[in-house]
Amino acid sequence: xxxxxxxxxxxxxxxxxxxxxxxxxxxxxxxxxxxxxxxxxxxxxxxxxxxxxxxxxxxxxxxxxxxxxxxxxxxxxxxxxxxxxxxxxxxxxxxxxxxxxxxxxxxxxxxxxxxxxxxxxxxxxxxxxxxxxxxxxxxxxxxxxxxxxxxxxxxxxxxxxxxxxxxxxxxxxxxxxxxxxxxxxxxxxxxxxxxxxxxxxxxxxxxxxxxxxxxxxxxxxxxxxxxxxxxxxxxxxxxxxxxxxxxxxxxxxxxxxxxxxxxxxxxxxxxxxxxxxxxxxxxxxxxxxxxxxxxxxxxxxxxxxxxxxxxxxxx
Length: 315
Known about the structure:
- The active site is at residues 142, 235, 237.
- Belongs to the MetA family.
- Its EC number is 2.3.1.46.
- One of its GO terms (molecular function) is homoserine O-acetyltransferase activity.
- This protein has 315 residues and is α/β, with parallel strands linked by helices.
- It has a domain at 30-160 and 194-238 and 277-309: Class I glutamine amidotransferase (GATase) domain (Rossmann fold, 3-Layer(aba) Sandwich), CATH 3.40.50.
- The protein contains eleven helices and twelve strands.
- Strands 1, 2, 3, 4, 5, 6, 7, 8, 9, 10, 11 and 12 form a twelve-stranded mixed sheet that branches.
- Helix 1 (10-17) crosses helix 3.
- The chain is globular and about 55 Å long.
């Protein structure tokens, strides 16, 4: 079954043209099943592009999923029409009384800022704490992963001198781990970030297990052992052209911008890049929805039942 999204969301027609299985609200209303309730806290400036990328990853599942987009403040966006935000986004304060089966928190272009300099830091920490009590499983992506690990466990993020940009080979570390079930022994993932957390710091937290890593990009995927938090440092949701667009943007600011590694054919930016990671990205999100969300979540979705399935949460 498909994801269910509002009838007028721009992503609906884009994904339909790509042969991605989505369902309008009107069609979904005729099916008498308990859909998964998944919220997406979209911190990226270009929200419409990010919506399409994440919805594409969520679409290949046998579950029906109700999607709600969330923002944490009502500040005017430079990159997304206000009408779009008013029509399709809920303020966090307006939904925090609710419970969700799953939550995805995207990255944000805040890599060079100290957490204390992030204007909405107190609010995002409120979201992190709320999710502990009201969400069966949360996926933290890129900046959000580092921010959550700092907030929950005090793990410090370090900054590279040069941005890590490119497509890198990774390997899963546990043959019996459900989140990487079906993965090849080596799989590709795009990365685009300055920040990183040392592997030894992950290993110092007994509640966390590292699930996949790269010799070049470091820890890619980690999760709490009770399956309530998933930490993702790469971008399996990226389009084939996303790193190219970022390279053009950055090179316009600095002529010293390096080419994304292992990305262009013959390292030639004039040649169209080929996406080599989408199947594993889709499988990751499908596994998360199945094994970490659907198989874990209570049928009666309320805070007491969510706490009952995660009694060992220490945070």
